[in-house]
Every structure is written in C-alpha cells, then in structure tokens.
Write a structure and sequence with these properties.
The chain is α+β, with helices and mostly antiparallel strands and 766 residues long. The protein has four domains: 22-69; 72-86 and 295-436, 7 Propeller (Methylamine Dehydrogenase, Chain H), CATH 2.130.10.10; 127-293, no CATH class; 462-530 and 612-763, MetI-like fold. The chain is built from 16 helices and 31 strands. β11 (198-205) and β12 form a beta hairpin.
Length: 766
C-alpha cells in the first residue's frame, strides 16, 4: 500500500516535460496565431491601399479631364452709349490684348480709342486721308495685329494699323494707342485713273508681300500685289515696295472680296449669293476656277468672312443658317466645298467675328441674339439673346475672354466669357473630322504648330489604334514562343536543365525597357532594313532546319541518341537555330537581287503599294515581344508545372500518350493560368512606353501594315506632356488619353479575370 502511493521520480520528470512541451507548444501556437493575424492584417491593408491608390489615380485623372466638358458661361459687365457717336457710324470695332482699350473706326475717317470698361474716350486720331477723299469701303487682315485697308473714293487704298504700347508711369501700367502706316501715309494706287471709288476691297499680307483687290464703281475688278524690300514686322513704321497691277475681266455684281492666306486664291462674293473662286497665283494668267451658290435656294447670303487662318469661309444667310466652306483638291481640280452646318437659332445674321487665336467664332443677328461656335469641334457653345434690338457690330478680344457689341440703339455692351476649352467634343476625339486643306475627313492627331492659324487635331483614334497595333504585333511574336517554351520547359525538360532555363528567362524581365528600345531603334531596325528578305526567310528556314534535324536525330543509332540524357535534347537545337539564322541572313542579299530587283523596299512600294519605314511595327513587335516573353513564360510555366502529378500519371496509366496527356489533361487544367499569363502580357504590351517611343517613328497613323510605325497612347503622353501648357486643352486631352488607357486596361483585366474564373471552374474537376 505504501509502495503504491509513493511518487516515482521518473514519472514526475516525464510529467514535467510534457507540461513544459505543452506550454511551449501553446506559446508557439499563440505566436503563430499572432504572426498570422499580423500577416493577414498587413496583406489586407496592402490590398486595400492598392485599391485606394488605383481609385485615387482614376479620380485625379477625371479631375484634370473634367473641365473639358464644362459648358461656357458669359456675364454682362456694363453697358454705355457709343463713344463719340457724333464722329460717324462705326465701320470696325476691335479690342487690344489687355482688354483695357478698344477702338472704333468711323466712316468720317476717325479712330476713336476708348476705355473698354466705361466707354470713356481716351484718344481720337484722324486718319491720314488725302484732301477731298473719303472712305468708301474697308477690309481687315490679321486681326491679331490690327491691319486695315481703307478703300477711298479716288481709287486708292490706305493701309493702316492700330498699335498699343504698354508703359509704366510711377509703377502704374498705362496702355498708349496709336495709328501707324507700315507702307507710308501715301495711299496705294489701285485705279490708275483716280476717278472711280472703290466700293469693295480685300487684302491679305505676310512678311514678304501683300495683295490688294478692289471693285470700282464702274464695275472693274482690280488687283495690286506689293513685294516688300524688307520683311513686314510687328514694329514696322514704313516700308518700301514694288507693285504689280492686274485687272480681272468679266466679274460683276460684287458684294465682298476675300483673299486666302497663301495669296493665291481670290473669293469674289456676288450679290446673288454666289461665290467665284479665282486663281491669282500667277498675275499674268489669272483663272476663274468655278462659281457656285453657297446658300440654299430661297435664302440670301447676309454675311461672309474668313475663319482664323484665312482658309475657311464662314457664311451666314438671312434665315440664320451658318455654314463652313473651304477649297478641296479633287480630280477635277480645286473646288469650293461645303464642309459643315452649325446648329443655329438666328434670324438674319448681321455679323460674324472670328477669334484671333482659335478656330472659334461668334455670330449676331437682327433680333439681338449672340452665339459662340467652334468650327473643328462642330459645337454651338452658347446661344443667348442679349439685346432687344438688332446687333450691328461685335468685337472679340485677342484672348477671347471679353467682347463688346453695338446695337441699333447706339448702345455698347461689355461681356466677360469663360470659354476655356471650345476645341473639345466627342466628335473631335473619336469621329472623322474634315480639317482645313484635307481632301476628306480623317482621324488625325496633330496637337501643335508654330502658328496661331493652325487647326488643332485631337483625335485619339490613331493613338488607340497604335496602342492595339503595337500590342497585337508584340503578342503575335511573344505568345507562341513564350507559351510553347513554357510547355516544353515544364513538361518535357529535365529538372536540372529547367533550373538553368527558367531563371535565365525570368532575369530577362529585369532588363530595362529603355535599353531594349535603344537597341531596337539603333541596332535592330537598321539590320532588319538591310536584311529584309533574310528576316522573312527565317520564318521558313528555321522551322525547316529544326524539322530536318529532328528527323535526322531519330534516324541516328540508339547508342548515339542515348548519350544525351532525357530532357536535354532541346540544348541540341541551339546550334541548329544559330546556323539556320546565319544561313537565312546570308541569303538575304542574293534573294533581294534575284526576286526583288535589288531592293525589296522599292519592290514593296511599286508592286504592293506598301511604304517602308525603318522603325516600324516589325521592329516594335520583336523588341516589345522580347520584353513580354518573360512574363508570359514564367506564369505559364508555373501553371503547367503546378498541375497535380496524379492527373498526369493517371492519364498515362490509362494508355494515353504523353502528347495526349499534355493536350487533354495538362493544358486544360492549366488553362486559367495560361490565360492569366496572356492577359498580363497583353497589359504589359498595352502600357509599354519606352520601347515604342524609341523603336518606332511615333507617327500617329491608322495603318495595319507591318512596315509602318505607330504612336501609342502611353508614348504620346510621354512625348507631349513636357511641352504642353498646364491646364490647356492639349494638357487636359493628354490626361484624357491616360484616362482612356487606364479604363481600357481596367476593363480588359476585368474581362480577363471573369474568363479566367470560368475556366478555373470548368476544369477544376479534372
């Protein structure tokens, strides 16, 4: 009894050890649980942070883009009587750059400068008209620089300009207006007799020459072209010149005269609402190209003017219709073509005034209505009744943020307008637009120029097309190589060789894309250009060489074949590929002389109509394919290698061959992973910037030819963002391009994930 109740030291020690072990296990479990909890929280926070970052990027892009879609607003600032109304009726109104001083030219040859804000007269200047002469007509040219041509009753034209100089007196800014005469105060002779008044005049000029045209009261159309001895500059006070005169016969019933910016086309507007298009490029051989009606039957032309740039005509009629026309080169020759109509609620259009720096314009009518339009965007920006009586004159400031009107009650109104992005419309971005001097509507991206007369072209279609084109050729090159290589590596290659191949290919992913683009543009592109037949012959010679080698290998004695360990046979193809590649490139020059007359690029152009650019889609496809291959290969190889071995062994045990097992079991089971690899590679190709930027010509063209380049959305943002003005339309549309790329990638990846999940569900039962 006493023995049974005694404590065994060995048992006690074992119990303590067990208790200690349980205690340590409990501590480890608690530590593991804490670590798991921390890891779970960190991963959750990281995942949520990534989602928040993506959402913030989206909202920031949308924030920058949003102002493009805001409607313009305008507000009347003040109203006052016409300054110096006793000095005669208004011929022309204009506002200077700072929106402080405006000028009113009157029929009494006065230039009245007045304060824009209150109408107070600042200065009155008498124009340098000869004695016993008076103004019978006038025309303007280059509104931004203030040039005017005044037709006189003695058959001459006075060429003048209103200028403004900014001075500071006691740190107070003051704008001093003046009238200058770049060609001297002596009027330019148009009618040599000096007996006939010029009832209508037109003029245009550049730094080297000026062309004046006038219609006299005895029904003669006269022209005088002046060649300047030195360039006409902004601060010119007086120039010397030589003139050449001509008369254009058989032109009558004239109501307006306009000359285009090239000084080679004259538009004669007739009283019956027809327009004659006349070629005046050669003054010794002036030709009337055509004459056509520019308003609908039953309507009468009431106002016509040039759009900024002096290429397009803006035409308004007595029923309020507004239209745009410009000459288009067709098979029959140059013809004045109707381009577009603008939605209008006008009655009789009394004046059309264009903006000085954009392709916008405004129109007023006899019911006191005013509307702003943009020609390229084909938009009616704003339409409002601002007066109870007819509006006669309108002047828009050079910055297009201020305008003044004059009505029948001799009142002037000053308005402020907020119209920052009139160039924007969905049609401009995605539709074909008929741009000035283009033979037909097109998708075009051309965002900037050295001239204010330029018509911005903001179509994103060529960029979206280029993005998909670059991705298509990259995937066409990368997918077969990456997927087939991954299948062989994971399924057929020995473990040791796989240990060399897989890391080597994955390391390629770390290669900077700028290096790939640099090598593609400066090294690969010239090689492909000089060995074009050899590059394409590789597509035939390399596969043929591999097949011949494989057939020969199978015919070799077993003793030789068995010396190569199983799974290492692919290494034997390396010299085969190198030799066949060398053979193809060596045969390039002989094939070019034999089949393509010595130059394959010229042969492609002459026989197939395909132009060849050195940096083209072929170069981009290879370079970007090399960048995409590691991504697709790595994910595909992991997906195939992760297929459970029991599926493979079971298929083989049931009598399937290794190839049947691969096709019907392994690939189907791994298909979600393979699809993910392709989609991730596609996303990489779509968003790639530096390779496309450096290895293609960056020309935004919509041409699927493999021999033409492209410009992608990402490359366009990289190229043009540094040169864009902050908050300008160009700047915001570049952000819109980034937003389009963002949405496209998001939608593409979402669709890919849906497909992947369905594949996973479908083949998970294998």
């Amino acid at each position: 009894m006493s023995e049974s109740n005694s404590i065994n030291p060995a048992n006690a020690s074992t119990g303590e050890d067990l208790a200690l072990a349980h205690s340590l296990t409990a501590k480890m479990n608690r530590a593991r649980a804490i670590k798991n909890k921390i890891t779970t929280v960190c991963m959750g926070v990281g995942g949520i942070s990534v989602i928040i970052a993506i959402v913030l990027i989206f909202f920031y892009l949308a924030y920058v883009v949003f102002p493009l879609f805001l409607a313009p607003e305008m507000e009347r600032t003040t109203q006052y009587p016409i300054p110096a109304a006793a000095e005669g009726k208004t011929l022309h109104l204009a506002i200077e750059e700072q929106n402080s001083i405006a000028v009113r030219f009157t029929e009494q040859a006065k230039a009245i400068f007045f304060n824009v804000n209150n109408g107070q007269v600042e200065q009155t200047v008498n124009l340098a008209l000869p004695r016993k002469s008076s103004i019978t007509s006038f025309a303007t040219s280059t509104l931004a620089k203030g040039y005017l041509a005044l037709g006189l009753n003695n058959g001459k034209i006075l060429f003048t300009r209103h200028k403004y100089k900014t001075t500071y007196v006691d740190d107070i800014k003051r704008i001093v207006p003046s009238i200058v005469y770049p060609l001297g105060e002596d009027p330019i002779e148009i009618d040599a007799t000096g007996k006939h008044a010029l009832t209508h005049v037109g003029m245009i000029h550049d730094e080297e020459k000026a062309t004046f045209v006038a219609y006299t009261d005895d029904n003669r159309l006269l022209l005088n072209q002046l060649i300047f001895d030195e360039e006409l500059e902004d601060d010119s006070e007086e120039l010397t010149y030589e003139g050449t005169q001509a008369e254009i016969p058989n032109i009558q019933h004239v109501r307006d005269l306009l000359i285009d910016t090239s000084q080679s086309l004259l538009y004669v507007v007739h009283t019956n609402s027809e327009v004659s298009l006349i070629d005046i490029d050669d003054l010794e051989d002036i030709q009337v190209l055509e004459r056509k009606r520019v308003v609908s039957q039953g309507s009468e032309l009431s106002e016509i003017t040039f759009l900024t740039g002096e290429i397009s005509l803006l035409i308004g009629d007595n029923k309020g219709k507004l239209s745009q026309w410009f000459p288009v080169q067709k098979e029959t020759g140059l013809t004045l073509t109707h381009i577009r109509d603008f939605e209008s609620e006008h009655s009789l259009v009394t004046d059309i005034v264009t903006e000085q720096r954009r392709k916008g314009f405004a129109a007023i009518d006899d019911k006191g209505q005013l509307a702003f339009y943009h020609s390229t965007a084909h938009r009616t920006l704003i339409h409002e009744a601002i007066s109870k009586t007819a509006l006669n004159f309108l002047a828009i400031s050079p910055r297009a943020n201020t305008f003044i009107t004059e009505d029948n009650n001799q009142q002037m109104q000053l308005w402020q307008i907020d119209n920052e992005h009139p160039e924007m419309s969905w049609g401009v971005i995605w539709d074909q637009i008929w741009y000035e001097s283009y033979p037909e509507p097109s998708h075009t991206w051309q965002s900037s120029s050295a001239s204010n007369d330029f018509e911005p072209k903001f179509s994103l279609m060529p960029l979206a097309f280029g993005t998909l084109k670059a991705a298509f050729y990259a995937m066409l090159f990368a997918m077969p190589l990456a997927i087939m290589g991954a299948i062989y590596t994971a399924y057929f290659m020995s473990a040791k060789m796989r240990g060399y191949v897989k890391p080597t290919i994955e390391i390629m992913e770390a290669l900077p894309t700028v290096i790939l683009g640099f090598l593609a543009g400066l090294w690969l592109a010239p090689i492909i250009e000089s060995h074009l037949p050899g590059v394409f012959s590789m597509l035939l010679i390399m596969p043929a060489g591999v097949l011949i080698f494989a057939f020969t290998w199978q015919k070799l004695p077993k003793q030789i074949r068995h010396r190569v360990p199983d799974g290492w046979q692919a290494a034997l193809l390396i010299p085969v590929l190198l030799i066949t590649g060398w053979i193809a490139m060596s045969l390039s020059l002989p094939m070019e002389h034999l089949f393509f007359g010595g130059d394959m690029k010229i042969w492609l152009s002459d026989n197939l109509g395909l132009d060849y650019d050195q940096r083209n889609s072929l170069v981009v496809g290879i370079a970007m394919g090399v960048a995409v291959i590691p991504t697709i290969f790595s994910i595909t190889e992991d997906a195939i290698f992760s297929v459970p071995k029991n599926l493979t062994f079971g298929s083989l045990a049931l009598g399937a061959t290794p190839w049947q097992t691969l096709i019907y079991v392994v690939i189907l089971t791994a298909s979600p992973g393979i699809f993910s690899a392709v989609m991730i590679g596609m996303g990489r190709a779509v968003g790639e910037t530096m390779i496309v930027l450096m290895s293609t010509g960056n020309t935004p063209v919509m041409d699927m030819s493999i021999f033409q380049g492209m410009r992608t959305l990402a490359a366009n943002v990289a190229v043009e963002m540094p040169e864009s003005e902050v908050d300008s339309t160009h700047y915001r549309i570049l952000f819109l391009a980034a937003l389009v790329l963002f949405i496209f990638t998001f939608m593409f990846n979402t669709l890919a994930e849906i497909v992947r999940q369905r594949l996973r569900k479908k083949y998970s039962s294998l």
